[in-house]
Write a structure and sequence with these properties.
The protein is built from 3 helices and 6 strands; from the N terminus they run αβββββααβ. It is an alpha+beta fold and 208 residues long. The chain has 3 domains: 82 residues; 52 residues, SH3 type barrels (Roll), CATH 2.30.30.100; 70 residues, no CATH class.
Length: 208
């Protein structure tokens, strides 16, 4: 009888023990899940912070680069305007695609004035998109004249060499005459082209 009466107590203890263990396991599982959720939340916050830092860095870099490019463009534009003397011919195109040509009569850091055929055109320097100036074409004329003179001198030399040859064998006379007169023709062409080009002015883009 004593043994029989003791069995329920042992079973009860065992059942109680199993119940406590399940409760502890559920508590542990809950704590683990909570830690995982916290870890995911923490990683998400870190990723957001890193992304925000990268975006901010890129924004600063792009802004600084744009500012540097704008400052460089302003400096180059101002230098191009200073290269044109007051009273000299100038042509500008504004940001609104208006084109003004004439004599530069006024110039400041903020605006310019161009005397056209009938009126004075004024434009803000910051809105000037392109600048042209007039220059003499002496150099270009010399190059063109030199080339033309070289060819003409060679042709003339070939004709004269062949025509005035009184030798028994005139083979190579034309080539010899061309070689002799070609340099002379080139020199005459250079001088003539330079003189003509000096009095011819053409537009040359100064900026950009």
């Amino acid at each position: 009888m004593p043994r029989t009466g003791g069995a329920p107590k042992v079973c009860a203890l065992r059942v109680k023990s199993h119940g406590d263990s399940g409760h502890v396991n559920r508590a542990n599982n809950g704590a683990t899940a909570e830690r995982r959720r916290y870890s995911k939340l923490h990683m998400g916050i870190q990723n957001c912070a890193i992304t925000a830092a990268v975006i901010a860095t890129l924004h600063v870099a792009i802004t600084a680069n744009a500012s540097a490019q704008s400052a460089t463009a302003d400096s180059a534009r101002a230098a191009a305007l200073r290269a044109v003397s007051l009273g000299a011919a100038i042509r500008v195109r504004t940001a609104g695609q208006s084109i003004y040509s004439g004599a530069l009569v006024e110039r400041s850091d903020s605006a310019i004035a161009i005397q056209g055929t009938e009126t004075i055109h004024r434009a803000e320097v910051s809105r000037v998109a392109a600048i042209w100036g007039r220059e003499r074409s002496a150099g270009r004329g010399a190059l063109i004249g030199g080339g033309v003179g070289l060819v003409m001198g060679a042709l003339a030399g070939a004709v004269l060499g062949e025509g005035f040859c009184d030798a028994a064998n005139c083979h190579g006379a034309a080539l010899k005459g061309a070689a002799e007169l070609a340099p002379t023709g080139a020199v005459i062409g250079v001088v003539t082209g330079a003189v003509i080009g000096y009095f011819i002015r053409r537009w040359r883009q100064l900026w950009p």
